[in-house]
């Protein structure tokens, strides 16, 4: 009775290790495919039009979708920018007659106008940030993939060790 329970427990652990290693390998394959596609797409064209399109959509719906407003405020504060190509493109203009507070330094909160707004647009700054940090992002993705492969290899080794030792019981 006791030996049967132990055998079932060991079989359960072995099956979990097989599932874990298979899931990690599948995840690495998907990550690798996405990384290759991303490198090919980004290296073959400029990011500018895509960033502009996404920013346009977000600015157009900012007063309807609160999450867009939060994202735009965060981006504008971080990059100290306003609008897509500058504060004068009217994308950061609110219905109440002022610019978004994040278009200006915090001391102008509540009455941010064109005269005290950040002059630079967000699109060029986001593009520069992504292009500058793309290699770092890719390096982190590769490091995570390597760690996952090591985890899968260790899981397979543990599974083989358990099966090997069970043969001698």
TrEMBL record:
Pfam families according to UniProt: Tetraspanin
Gene3D superfamilies for this protein: Tetraspanin
Membrane topology classification: Multi-pass membrane protein
Major site of localization recorded for this protein: membrane
Location relative to the cell: Membrane
InterPro entries: Tetraspanin/Peripherin, Tetraspanin_EC2_sf
Gene Ontology cellular component list: plasma membrane
PANTHER family: TETRASPANIN
Protein name according to UniProt: Tetraspanin
């Amino acid at each position: 009775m006791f030996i049967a329970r132990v055998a079932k427990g060991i079989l359960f652990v072995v099956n979990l290790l097989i599932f874990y290693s298979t899931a990690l390998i599948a995840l690495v394959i998907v990550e690798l495919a996405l990384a290759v596609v991303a490198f090919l797409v980004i290296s073959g064209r400029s990011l500018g039009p895509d960033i502009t399109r996404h920013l346009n959509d977000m600015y157009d719906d900012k007063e309807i979708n609160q999450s867009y407003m939060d994202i735009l405020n965060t981006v504008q504060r971080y990059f100290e920018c306003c609008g897509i190509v500058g504060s004068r493109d009217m994308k950061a203009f609110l219905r109440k007659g002022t610019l978004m507070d994040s278009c200006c330094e915090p001391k102008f909160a509540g009455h941010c106008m064109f005269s005290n707004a950040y002059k630079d647009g967000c699109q060029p700054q986001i593009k520069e940030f992504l292009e500058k940090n793309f290699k770092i992002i890719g390096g982190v993705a590769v490091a995570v993939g390597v760690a996952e492969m090591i985890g899968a290899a260790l899981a397979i080794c543990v599974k083989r060790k358990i099966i090997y030792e069970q043969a001698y019981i």
